[in-house]
Amino acid sequence: MHQILLYPVGNGDSSQIILENGKRILFDYRHLKKGEGDDSPEFDLKGRLKKELDDAKRDYFDVVGFTHCDSDHIENSTEFFELHYAQKYQGDGRIKINELWVPAAMIIETATNGQQDSEFVIWRQEARYRLKKGEGIRVFSKPDKLKDWLEGEGLTVESRKHLITDAGSLVPGFDLQKDGIEFFCHSPFIRHTDEGDDLRNPCSLIFNVRLKAGTNTYDYLAVGDTEWEIIEEIVNTTRYHKNDDRLAWDIFNIPHHCSYKALSDEKGEKETEPKPLVKDLLLQGKTDAYIVSSSNPIKDSKEALEQTQPPHIQAKKCYERHLKEVNGAKFLVTMEEPNEKTPEPLVFNIESNGIKRGAKKPVAAPAVSITSAPALRAG
Questions:
Q1: I want to staple 9 with a disulfide (CB 3.0 to 4.6 A). Which of 30, 124, 343, 362 is the partner?
Q2: Which H or E run includes 18?
Q3: How far apart (Å, rounded) are the C-alpha atoms in residues 360 and 354?
Q4: pLDDT band (50, 70, 90) for residue 195
Q5: Which fold has domain 2-357?
Q6: Residue 171: what pLDDT?
Q7: What is the dihedral of CA 157, 234, 121, 114, to 10 degrees?
């Protein structure tokens, strides 16, 4: 059995994959310090992850990936992890990272430090340090801007190509038969970084994560903050290369905290109408599939219909309608489960006989132990 955990961190992201063989992959980290108290719904991500690692008798993650470097994906992370490039970020119970995954944009973004979030600057330094050293990192896409940066450091793309993965490729280091998992990189595309001015959302990491349990395989679509144009390009490109199976999903962690902009450029009065290829992706959901919004609770009210920032109720209604069309299981919101006052991580057990909700101890690796519950169907 494998597990996928999605943590309730407000309008932000943090998720973890725990494999049956004990390997752990963490995507994004947003710790809200007020969650360390007992009088707010915010979640103590730092405390929870440390407990999980202590229970597993380890002080490291096999992989930590940052889909992009906006603060809602890296908040307070530089206080939690051990960084190689500076001694002040080492020791003192910090959690180690065996391999850091970042989009190329995270390395080459060049705005001055005063114009950028201080934690991003720290992670950029760490990523650059690891890439220059030639170990402990994987970079996604190799735009000309990355080539120029490497050459400016006296290096070449050729000397670091073993650390770089392009869209349309499997990520080295994980094997579906041996580990029960493989990562197919959908994005970022090279041109998103070379041609774009925004090196954050359009260049964020997007994966088809395929998990094998027994003789069955399951697909988890893990999407960083992105907008509908990128999703349509992914669908087009994936079909062109005859990788259509990589668009199917049993679990879809939807982009940008249920923003309508991941579906269309028009929010819609009551419900967002998705662009054609975005709709095609939504209809790739399998029977009993789940959609997850890593976001604040989603209200259905006059005020919610008019609000500018996500989550958007119009987008939720769109997702729910298409999930019903594919006979899916349920649309879930991280900050609503099991309730809005005391949200807990969403846990999906990937088992040989299907996907079941509710945490329980994996077969070969200790984890948080809570009573398991079968998947619930909508309605």
A1: 30
A2: strand 15-18
A3: 15
A4: low
A5: Metallo-beta-lactamase; Chain A (3.60.15)
A6: 98
A7: 120
